[in-house]
Amino acid sequence: MPNASFVSGADGGSALAAALAYLARGWVPVPMSPRRKRPLLPWRELQKRRPSEAEVKGWYRRWPSAGVAVVTGGLSGLVVLDVDPANGGASSLAAEEARHGALRRTVEVRTGGGGRHLYFAHPGGDVRNRTGFAPGLDLRGDGGIIIAPPSIHPSGRPYAWCAGRSPGDLDLAPLPVWLDPRDPGDGAHRGHSPAYWRELVRVGVEAGRRNGTIASFAGHLLWHGVDPDIVLELLLGWNRMRCRPPLGDAEVAEVVRSIGRAHRRGEGGDNGQSAG
Fold first, then answer.
1. Angle value at C-alpha 96, between 94 and 99, nearest 5 degrees
2. 28 in helix, strand or coil?
3. pLDDT for the residue 216
4. Is the bond preceding residue 150 a cis peptide, omega within 30 degrees?
5. Is 29 a residue whose pLDDT tops 90?
6. pLDDT at residue 270 tops 60
7. Of 30, 130, 132, whose CA–CA distance to 89 is shortest?
8. Top mean-pLDDT range of 8-17, 102-111, 200-209
9. What SS3 class is residue 123?
């Protein structure tokens, strides 16, 4: 069920409620100047640590009319595609989807400026920010920040979750291969340790991490030469036993097939790291 904090209004109190809801999801909130794209405090340290609940409440006692942003990257487990139609973003995205296939349904924000923020699961490693990699398209990854609902845009319009696409409605989709800027530099695949994968197999993941983790898991197994049919059967079983709650079999199969197609093209040699 959706969390009310994700669909509430735009006053300062609801911004606090949203910030606390984001914190509870493992995202890192940052207070923003009202109707401005400027953080109210130095936020670089928040790329490396999560604030406490008391700290977040203190921010909004100090700045009761503040908006809220979320730090992107590995700590929050987020990568966000920023689509700005005013600068050609809609046309650029349509061209990329014609080339690579339609984006999977994922968490999405309608911005106060008429744009779109598409949230994806962070795949692990270092996902660099990419500003203007196509007209009107930016990628916010490690070292980035994105304004979140219910903040108010300088236009006076609020940022809002699209209907049926709030974080309480569905999981983050895996980051599409064509959006993934990771480059180890020496061709090496730097992944998690065997201990990480053993723990993942044993413990599983909760809603919000299922799609991205299954995608990463599939890439890890394929990279190590496991037959694609075996990968699918293994992940179907793992999902049923370890994901809380399990995804539908058809959704798991589609994620695995997508990673398999990328792997066959030589694009999807997953680095063995899961979404944060």
1. 110
2. strand
3. 77
4. yes
5. yes
6. no
7. 132
8. 102-111
9. coil
CB contact at 8 A, 165 and 106: yes
> What type of residue sits at position 241?
M
Structure tokens at 255: 């994620």
Structure tokens at 106: 């994922």
pLDDT at 273 over 90: no
Q: Are strands 137-140 and 67-71 parallel, antiparallel or unpaired?
A: unpaired
pLDDT 10s digits, 109-140: 999 999 999 999 998 888 888 888 888 899 99
In the DSSP assignment, the letter for residue 128 is B
3-state DSSP call for residue 34?
Answer: coil
How far are the Cα atoms of 14, 201, 215 from residue 146, in angstroms, in the given order? 18, 32, 24
Q: Average pLDDT over the chain, rounded to whole?
A: 83
240 close to 88: Cβ distance less than 8 angstroms:
no
**Sheet strand arrangement including 145-148:** 28-32, 67-71, 145-148
Q: Residues 164-206: pLDDT tens digits? A: 999 999 999 999 888 876 544 333 344 556 776 788 888 888 8
* Stated pTM of the model: 0.66
Tell me the angle at which helices 228-242 and 210-223 cross, rounded to the nearest 10 degrees. 150
In 3D space, the residue among 53, 57, 31, 34 whose CA is nearest the CA of residue 42 turns out to be 31
Where do the structural domains in the chain lie, given as residue ranges? 4-179, 194-264
Distance, in Å, from the CA atom of 194 to the CA atom of 226, rounded to the nearest integer, reads 16
Determine contact, residues 77/121, Cβ cutoff 8 Å.
yes
Tokens of 240: 């049923």
- CB contact at 8 A, 7 and 51: no
Q: What dihedral do alpha carbons 130, 132, 135, 136 form, nearest 10°?
A: 80
